[in-house]
């Protein structure tokens, strides 16, 4: 069933206007006719309905997001399949994706970046505590509300830690520019994988460019594994640069111990409290920077 304005899904969600088109489907603003609430509804593309892998991944997104209740993660309200369509009903988040903000502003202030990192890391900690690794943290999956709140969206390729992945063996999931070296090497994702991806996002926000580029996806993945990132601008304070370098360390053991530690360090650096930041992430002081 091709989505169009006025169509109703599940007997209660009436489509209003299309918000976005993604790899797996379309996202529409809709009205929940039962309780009168505005929602976002993600509708799986027709061509994927016959693919059990895609359908299972779509169902998994509903299950995964429902595991976590945190103000920094977009809520999932409902899931359904009908007449050859599968759909996911989510919280309608006002605002825009960080990717849109970056297209417009190119570079963000250090304070803004630390705020985004702190909020995202706090939300990731809730996901990690529920045993969930997002695996695709990137600017397009971080929604920024008009009052500056961050909401993580799209748990489509998230994975329960230690669970057999939904993707075929050897298939790398995640957006390659934000992919951790261990993911690029075919190793399992872990909570520190999300910390790496968030570090790449922070680097891009501060520098106005991504640290690793290449002519192809394979070349970029190899750069994630082998290359040191270019230095961040010296106009950014050294503790902040060190925090970002720690997040994108090649060895997971050199990264912040947890997303909670990263959130604490980011909040402390916003206040100029280097001592508290270093207590959470010792690399802030320069020990073991970008290794």
From TrEMBL:
Keyword Kinase: yes
CDD domains reported in the protein's UniProt record: STKc_PknB_like
Enzyme class: transferase
Catalytic activity, reaction form: L-seryl-[protein] + ATP = O-phospho-L-seryl-[protein] + ADP + H(+); L-threonyl-[protein] + ATP = O-phospho-L-threonyl-[protein] + ADP + H(+)
Claim: tRNA processing is one of the keywords in the record: no
Keywords assigned: ATP-binding, Kinase, Nucleotide-binding, Serine/threonine-protein kinase, Transferase
PANTHER family in UniProt: MITOGEN-ACTIVATED PROTEIN KINASE KINASE KINASE 20-RELATED (PTHR43289), SERINE_THREONINE-PROTEIN KINASE NEKL-3 (PTHR43289:SF6)
Protein name from the UniProt record: non-specific serine/threonine protein kinase
Source organism of this protein record: Agromyces seonyuensis
Record lineage: Bacteria, Bacillati, Actinomycetota, Actinomycetes, Micrococcales
